[in-house]
Structure formats: C-alpha cells, structure tokens
Amino acid sequence: xxxxxxxxxxxxxxLEKQPSGKKLNPxxxxxxxxxxxxxxxxxxxxxxxxxxxxxxxxIKQLYKERLGKAPLLVTCNLLxxxxxxxxxxxxTPVEKxxxxxxxxxxxxxxxxxxxxxRQHLTDVIxxxxxxxxxxxxxxxxxxHDCTGAIAKLSAPITxx
Length: 160
What we know:
Layout: H1 7-16, H2 31-67, E1 73-79, E2 82-88, H3 93-101, H4 104-129, E3 133-141, E4 146-153
Helix pairs in contact: 2-4, 3-4
C-alpha cells in the first residue's frame, strides 16, 4: 500500500520545487490585499471607537447642560446598527423628590423629563454619528439612579 500524502503536504512540496527558489504560502495568495483589509479594519474600528467615545462625552455634557447635573458614568456600546447606552447617576435631586412623592402628577413630570431627554439623546446621536435614529427605546430606573437606551440606527457605523 503506498504512503498517503495529505493535499497540503503535496502542495507545499510542489511549491518548494518552483524554479524561483521562493516558497509561496498558499494561505496568503495576495498579502498586499490582506494587509490593506487588516489596516482598513483596524482604522474603521479605531474610528468607530473614537466616535463612540465622543458620543459618550456629548451625552454627559447634555445632562450637565439640560438638567444641571452630569451623570457619574456614560457607557456606549455599538452592535452593528444599534447603539446601547447606559447612564449611571442620571437622576437629579428634583426628579428623586418628585418620584418619591409618588403622586400621579409628580410621576408624570418625571416621565415628561425622560421624554424630553430621549429626544435630546436622539439629536446627540444623529449629530455625532452622522446617521438617523430610526427608533429608540429608553427607560429610567429612579430606584437605582440609572437610565438605559437602545437606539436603532439607519446604517451600521462601520459603513461610515
């Protein structure tokens, strides 16, 4: 029974016997293209992370300007064409007082503030990411002093 040789072994051996004396690597047929795509991917990743950091800072500034209190932490994560936002320390003392009052009128004022801030968040995202926000789901947890939002974007950030 003859010795069996794997396809990759026979390919490597045939490549080694080429007259130029150079061994070609079959897995990287065009290294220039591979290097360019890696560089482009790294640049777009870097650019996307810089944009996300800019959006995070802009959201923090928005809360400071509109509500008089900057949040403790703003975290944004990009998932293709969705932006997930987590804001800790987003509740002002007045909102805490209103929510603690528990009356329908007081809670209505809190929800009105949330709706106004949701529109401002949409504006910040659109301005800094240069895409439309198709829809946004957002909610505030007054008991734990945080706000979360998910924005559906009109295009993935990687295509920018």
